[in-house]
Q: What sequence folds into this?
């Protein structure tokens, strides 16, 4: 029986559509903002209290950290251009999202980053040049995560969101008060592991903060391709709060993250934070944004630059003067110089090290292949010695 | 000594590790109240609580990914995947994350997750419930893969897997879950990552593992009636493979047949054949033969017996080997 036998549609599809919608899931959520792009303060009865403790010292420290990591990022980009790094994913534009959230963490909290969280690394006390070991090709890790509670970068998108939930499930069993933070982006939000991690976190009411940096671009694909609704709205589908914060407002990011952390710490379960920000640079040094986005868009976001915003506040309120900014510049240049020196001093690892950590317990195949490799290499040494001897004669 | 089915031997092994180490926990789908679809974890949640025997949401990547996180917090999770064909949503977590965590952290981190997977066919089931995906995991450095074939090994290898510092996948021969055997609960006898000669012989060697070990033994008995003495090796460990035991046997018998339910192409049999050719070429009286699955998705249950290696197919291969 073909479709021609079906009666003509008499349904009012639009009416049915309307009856399905109880509240509009696509409605733009309020954007939490405590400092406007011009540096003026915005009152917020709910989240303002979570930033009330930020005095002049704290705000200057945040500016300093944002400036340091921006300079570091610039140096890493240069090092890649000069052939000293294989690749570099710049964080330019996302400094407030990262310094604001990272600075809200307590030492016992545990961070699971993706691969662009250089600013968070700084807040965890990680020596930044260690991050570059991965991008220099001398290590796939580069630091001991247990020292800074900052896990290794994860390149397979969103895999770490489940690790964060599992770690938090362990925290719950230990009766500890640590919270884990899973960082990911708007692109990775489409990955199944983000969905599964939110299901597991909600099911267990685990102390996890999902921190999504919506930087608007997953390499060349805009956020609209990932989601028809604001990402923070997705949280309600899992049964926990979602909140959208101005990701270029370091004070608001700090306040919202502090709120989410304390909420999770008190046993109320996970929160999704969508930090609304912008990747002002390329996805990585191998990318060319001119092929997929307009300069006018970049220009619009430059006006919302996170460092500029805090600088305007610090200057207009006389919280910091020119001396402070000069001093930060000097410090940032020093960091850049030491970063460069550290990178150039990084030596290629011994290939034999690769055999050492495939397994923890002895493994006959790895042992056999290591021995073969050693003999093979030793053969070259003997050849060279023989040749040298021949030449000497 | 105690007589147990393979399923109950695994239950007992799991009970022993849960009792021994408070950091161990079991997680999977339907493993709590129900005791798992094969009842392997039956009674354990009542005994150890819902925090140690965890009914997870229905998401395999979620199970493996959270298990890795639990390891980083100092726990030792034992994950159950309900069926062989359902492991693939977790393939990414197992191969890109779990298998590499030690090497990419230069040995600073480890994730000794144990993954239990009921595998293999012959149970008259619908698709995705009868597969043998062991070679896909054996190809991944960083993982260990074992498969017991009897109750004693099931009891001990489960515990040895948990004791390992490495991630271990235990492929459990589900059609043999109800096979009874003697378990020496005092002594394991050997470690989980070695092979075992389960029948001595002089004319040819059959290497089998998991569900096909009883088939290989039956074939050897049938061959004996024809006057042929066949040695049978239970491989037990698929990664690493105990090539010393296999090579020693081939040096004695000169003939080798490897059998598994998985398709032969790109399978464990090919790896064994290559290694034996490298190590014992001059001992071989005949080419190494493989008796395994065809290069097709696992067939329909109504005709699966034509796919599965059985006594006759092993004897046919033995005839070819002896006549070479």
A:
């Amino acid at each position: 029986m073909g479709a021609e036998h079906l009666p003509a549609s008499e349904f009012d599809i639009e009416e049915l559509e309307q009856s399905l919608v109880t509240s509009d899931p696509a409605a733009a959520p309020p954007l939490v903002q405590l400092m406007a792009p011009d540096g003026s303060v915005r009152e917020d009865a709910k989240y303002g209290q979570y930033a009330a403790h930020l005095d002049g010292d704290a705000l200057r420290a945040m500016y300093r950290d944002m400036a340091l990591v921006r300079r570091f990022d610039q140096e890493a980009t240069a090092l890649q251009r000069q052939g000293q790094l294989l690749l570099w994913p710049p964080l330019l534009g996302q400094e407030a999202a990262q310094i604001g959230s990272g600075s809200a963490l307590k030492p016992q909290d545990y961070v699971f980053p993706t691969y662009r969280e250089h600013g968070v690394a700084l807040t965890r006390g990680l020596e930044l040049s260690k991050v570059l070991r991965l991008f220099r090709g001398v290590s796939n890790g580069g630091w001991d995560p247990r020292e800074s509670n900052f896990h290794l970068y994860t390149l397979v998108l969103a895999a770490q969101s489940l690790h964060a939930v599992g770690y938090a499930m362990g925290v719950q069993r230990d009766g500890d008060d640590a919270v884990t933070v899973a960082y990911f982006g708007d692109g990775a939000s489409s990955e199944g592991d983000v969905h599964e991690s939110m299901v597991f976190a909600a099911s267990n009411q685990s102390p996890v903060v999902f921190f999504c940096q919506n930087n608007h671009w997953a390499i060349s694909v805009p956020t609209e391709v990932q989601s028809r609704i604001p990402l923070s709205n997705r949280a309600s589908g899992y049964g926990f709060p979602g909140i959208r914060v101005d990701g270029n407002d370091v004070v608001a990011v700090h306040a919202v993250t502090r709120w989410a952390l304390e909420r999770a710490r008190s046993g109320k379960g996970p929160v999704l934070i969508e930090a609304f920000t912008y990747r002002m640079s390329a996805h990585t040094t191998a990318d060319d944004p001119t092929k997929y986005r307009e300069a006018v868009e970049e220009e619009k976001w430059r006006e919302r630059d996170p460092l500029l915003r805090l600088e305007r506040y610090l200057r207009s309120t006389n919280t910091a003067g020119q001396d402070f900014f000069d001093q930060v510049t000097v410090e940032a240049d020093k960091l850049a110089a030491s970063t460069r020196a550290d990178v150039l001093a990084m030596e290629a690892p011994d290939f034999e090290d690769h055999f050492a950590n495939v397994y923890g317990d002895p493994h006959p195949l790895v042992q056999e292949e290591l021995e073969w490799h050693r003999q093979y290499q030793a053969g070259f040494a003997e050849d060279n010695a023989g040749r040298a001897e021949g030449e000497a004669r | 000594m105690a007589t147990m089915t393979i399923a109950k031997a695994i239950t007992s092994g799991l009970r022993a590790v849960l009792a021994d180490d408070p950091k161990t926990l079991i997680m999977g789908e339907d493993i709590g109240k129900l005791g798992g679809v094969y009842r392997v974890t039956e009674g354990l949640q009542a005994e150890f609580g819902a925090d140690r025997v965890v009914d997870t949401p229905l998401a395999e990547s979620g199970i493996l990914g959270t298990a890795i996180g639990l390891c980083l917090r100092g726990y030792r999770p034992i994950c159950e995947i309900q069926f062989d064909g359902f492991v693939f949503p977790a393939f990414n977590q197992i191969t890109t994350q779990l298998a590499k965590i030690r090497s990419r952290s230069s040995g600073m981190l480890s994730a000794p997750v144990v993954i239990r997977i009921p595998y293999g066919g012959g149970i008259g089931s619908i698709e995705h419930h009868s597969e043998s995906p062991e070679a896909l995991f054996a190809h991944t450095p960083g993982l260990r893969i074992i498969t017991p074939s009897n109750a004693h090994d099931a009891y001990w290898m489960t515990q040895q897997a948990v004791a390992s510092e490495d991630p271990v996948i235990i492929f459990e021969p589900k059609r043999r879950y109800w096979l009874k055997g003697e378990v020496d609960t005092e002594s394991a006898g050997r470690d989980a990552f070695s092979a075992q000669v389960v029948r001595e012989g002089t004319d040819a060697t059959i290497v089998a593992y998991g569900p096909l070990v009883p088939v290989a033994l039956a074939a050897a008995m049938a061959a004996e009636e024809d006057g042929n003495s066949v040695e049978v090796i239970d491989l037990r460990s698929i990664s690493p493979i105990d090539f010393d035991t296999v090579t020693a046997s081939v040096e004695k018998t000169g003939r080798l047949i490897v059998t598994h339910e998985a398709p032969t192409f790109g399978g464990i049999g090919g790896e064994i054949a290559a290694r034996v050719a490298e190590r014992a070429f001059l001992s071989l009286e005949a080419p190494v033969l493989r008796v395994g699955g065809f290069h097709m998705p696992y067939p329909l249950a109504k005709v699966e017996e034509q796919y599965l290696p059985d006594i006759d197919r092993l004897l046919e291969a033995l005839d070819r080997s002896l006549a070479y």
Remarks:
- The interface with chain B takes residues 112, 139-141, 144-146, 151-152, 154, 156, 159, 161-171, 173-174, 180, 192-193, 196-197, 199-200, 203, 353-354, 356-361, 363-366 of chain A (CB under 8 Å).
